[in-house]
Amino acid sequence: MVDWGFVCVHVVKQVWVLAERAEPAPTLQHRLNRLELEHAYLAEQNAHLIKELSFARYTIHALKNITTQKDTALQASRQELDRAYFRIRMLGMTLLRQEQQLKEQEFDKETREQDQMTPPESPRGECALPSSSSSSDTTTLL
After folding, report:
1. Distance in angstroms (rounded) separating the CA atoms of residues 98 and 15
2. Rg (Cα) of the chain, in Å, rounded?
3. What is the 3-state secondary structure (H, E, C) of 57-87?
4. Sign of the Cα pseudo-torsion (55, 60, 64, 66, in order)
5. How far is Cα 29 from Cα 41, in angstroms, rounded to an integer?
6. In the beta sheet, which residues pair with residue 121?
7. Are the beta carbons of 137 and 131 closer than 8 angstroms?
8. What is the distance between the alpha carbons of residues 119 and 112, in angstroms, rounded to a whole number?
9. What is the pLDDT of residues 6-61, one digit of tens each?
10. Cβ atoms of 4 and 36 closer than 8 Å
């Protein structure tokens, strides 16, 4: 690709050098030529800068889109993480409840087993023997 800005500058410098060698004082035609060359150089540089500005704007737009996509993905990940933490807390609470229920069941079972293994005590601390007769017949201990 030809860098027209460099070419224009080179041409302008060559014209100035030739003009300085040929004529000691700039004439109106020389000034006009010089202005035309400067105008061509500046117009070429302006076109190049406009193209660069267009690319920069395109890049900015693309980067904004990428940033928006990343922010959306990050927000979705944060929401998923929050939901996961919530589920973990709920599962932890459920496990604690189940563990507590199991302990209560074990305690109740042990209590029933102990009640079945030991005879009931009388108010004085003596063991009362279960009667084999009818329910109306009770033994009283003095």
Report:
1. 96
2. 51
3. HHHHHHHHHHHHHHHHHHHHHHHHHHHHHHH
4. positive
5. 18
6. 127
7. yes
8. 12
9. 555 566 566 555 555 555 566 888 999 999 999 999 999 999 999 999 999 999 99
10. no
Handedness of CA 100, 101, 102, 105 (dihedral sign): positive
* Torsion-angle region of 79 (φ positive above 0: left; ψ -120 to 50: alpha; else: beta): alpha
- What pLDDT sits at residue 16? 57
What does pTM read for this prediction? 0.47
CA distance linking residue 59 with residue 9, whole number of Å: 30
**CA 127, 133, 134: angle at the middle one, nearest 5?**
110
Six token digits for residue 65? 């889109």
Beta bridge partners of 94: none
Residue with token string 């890049």: 59
